[in-house]
Each structure stands twice: as structure tokens, then as C-alpha cells.
Amino acid sequence: MSKYANHLSPNLPSTHKLTKSQKSRARREPSGVFSLFQAPQIQQFKEAFQLIDHDKDGWVNESDLREIFTSLGITPTQATLDNLLSSRPGDTSSLSSTDKGINFTMFLTMMSERLFEFDTEPELLEAFESFDENDNGTVRVEDMRRWLGELADRMSEQEIDKFLKGPFTDRQGNFNYREWIKVLRVNEDGNEPEAQT
């Protein structure tokens, strides 16, 4: 059972016919998901969607997903592809694997759900700042490794390595949490928060 409204489905059941005025209104009224983001954020998502949509038909389908995985050096299983496509908005219980896929509005809806599961930017900053002894926007990687592996919801060594291996860790062994939070929250402005004195 889908958690999305049926009208978000790309293929409505044949018993559900819209009148001419309903079709016209549906074309004119934007999806509510667009109000969740500011224009620069929507533009970033549009660019990401266009990178995934290899055949440029406005739909991300199984062949597009295979292409993007292949370009990343990953061989996806059929179950992975099915899982990604079945997580789209709308009632997908009656849809076959040959149906179109995910359009931009569906993609934006899916991204909004993932992003809004996280804490707010100020909450994340406050949490990291409590470990930032020098107030410089970084936390020592060895300390992060210890905290992530020993406290609260413990992460495995593989999860910690994957998290700390990225571009937010410098050669001196510091994790730049301010930049990480900006990327995580798809921050619309490029201004870095001022350091507190």
C-alpha cells in the first residue's frame, strides 16, 4: 500500500476518468511539493534529475537507473531497481515494471520526504558545535570515530569509514561539519554561518 495519494500516480486506473475541466485544472495547478523548497533548491534537484534521466524523456525508468549505476561502477540487482522504482509516489500496486517510471514531481516528492526526516540545520550545527572545542567548524576524525562507534546508536566500523572517507575530511584528520550540513540540507544560499566568538 502506498503512502501517497492516488492522484500522484502516473497511471490512474481506467475506472478513474477526469473531466475536461479537471484535466485543465490539473495542468495549471502546481504540486504542493514545490512550495516546500525555494527556487534555487528546486533548480538543484532539477539538475540532479536531468543527470539521472539519460534518455531525456522526462521519466527516470529502469534503463536510466541502470545507466547511472553503471557510470558509477555499480552493477545493480533487479531487486534494487524494482525497489527504487516501487518507492515512487502514487498507487503502484497495479503497475507493471513496464510503466513509465518517476517524473520530476515524483522525484521532488521523494527527495522532500528524505530531507525532512533529518533534524533542522540549527539543530545539527548545535549538536556538532558541542564537540567543536576550537569553534572552527571542524571536529577531529578520531574523536568522531570513537563517539559514533561507542555512544548512543552505534555505527559499525564500515559505516563510520564510509561516512568519514568523503570530501568533508581534510588531510589533518578534521571533519568539516559545517560544509557537511550545508550539503545535507541542500542549503539554498552559499553563505557559511559566521563563527561564534
TrEMBL record:
Limits of the EF-hand domain: 40-75, 119-154
InterPro entries according to UniProt: EF-hand-dom_pair, EF_Hand_1_Ca_BS, EF_hand_dom, Myosin_RLC
Pfam families reported in the protein's UniProt record: EF-hand_6
Span list, region Disordered: 1-25
Record keywords, A-Z: Calcium, Repeat
Protein known as: EF-hand domain-containing protein
Species annotation: Lentinula boryana
